[in-house]
Amino acid sequence: MKELEDIVKAFDTAEQAGKQTALATVVQVEGSSYRRAGARMLVTEDGELTGAISGGCLEGDALRKARLVMAQQQPMLVTYDTTDDDDAKLGVGLGCNGIIHILIEPIFASQPNHPIQLFKKFLGKRQNAVVITLFSLANRKGTQLGTCLFLTNDEYLSKCGNTPIEAQLRSDAQAVLQTGRSTTKTYLADSEITGFVELLKPAVSLLVFGAGNDAIPLVQMASVLGWHTTVIDGRANYAVSSRFPQARQVLVAKPDQALSLLTTDSLTVAVLMTHNYNYDLAMLRQLMPLQLPYVGSLGPKKKLMRMLDELLDNGVNMTSSELQALYGPTGLDIGAETSEEIALSILSEIQAVLQQREGKSLRDKHTVIHSNDMESLPVNHENL
What we know:
The chain has helices at 2-16, 59-72, 115-123, 166-179, 215-225, 255-258, 277-287, 301-313, 320-324, 339-354; strands at 21-31, 40-44, 49-51, 76-81, 98-107, 129-135, 146-151, 156-158, 183-188, 192-200, 205-209, 228-233, 249-252, 268-272, 294-297, 326-327, 380-381. By secondary structure, it is α/β, with parallel strands linked by helices.
């Protein structure tokens, strides 16, 4: 979600300066591409780019298209086809062997619920949301409706008007919210409209128990990823905001106080690295029943096994699912020695766990790098 946060900040800056902006969104990918559907880039009238829709090869051409969109004040669908071996003829040299459809829409700051405003609503709460972007592959030069629907468990906003498909759009958005998987759906009638029904998830929330020097690079790297980090330690001289400027919160708390100061959800992960056995043990006892997807314990396996044995002796029986979410020693085996390398190891393992990957070399992968994780919904035939 760091990309969306950066885009929102860039939009606010541009709006304060009175600059026009346009939003480029990858709405559909066929074959291979550097970015998948949902990648976004904000463009200002003077050429400032925030976010990315490719590895850098499309941005220049998309900037020219975005300026045209801002001048005409109409959304535009742009397609880059690199399935031809001679993709250099496009002038961008993609080499991705795929077809990338990008919708570029002008942002009208005066209009309510424009795309950036919807992102602000999403970022303001830690809950999943669905955004629907409509475009026409059949009539590329025709009207492109753009970002028009926003749905959460407690909010629904639509700019689709009273079109016959609005009820179906809302139903499809609710289905994606329930399944947790984005989808692309085609609505067929006199004309054909494609909807990118996109699930937005909050940023990873990383709880770092321990404010020692080795926690500093962990927090720094997590910030680069856009994760929201909280540092907790019982030592007031260590848990200082000036030591962790990238952290969202720095708390001084004893183990029995810590959880009362925190909010956890399905995207909350934790790492125990206080170097204090009793503190880690007390936190482990409280964290395991929360069913977090990842709890890491820094240090040797012998230390973790001792903690588990002590908890068992005190009547704390852990389920198999709780033990499955416990990683100790924490981190991937990449030969890490320094604090920075250990931080990289830990964050890599957390990323792999959250994405349900094994964390092995892509060289040894025999399928596509980015699997198609979008669920297909049936084609809808309705009058438009």
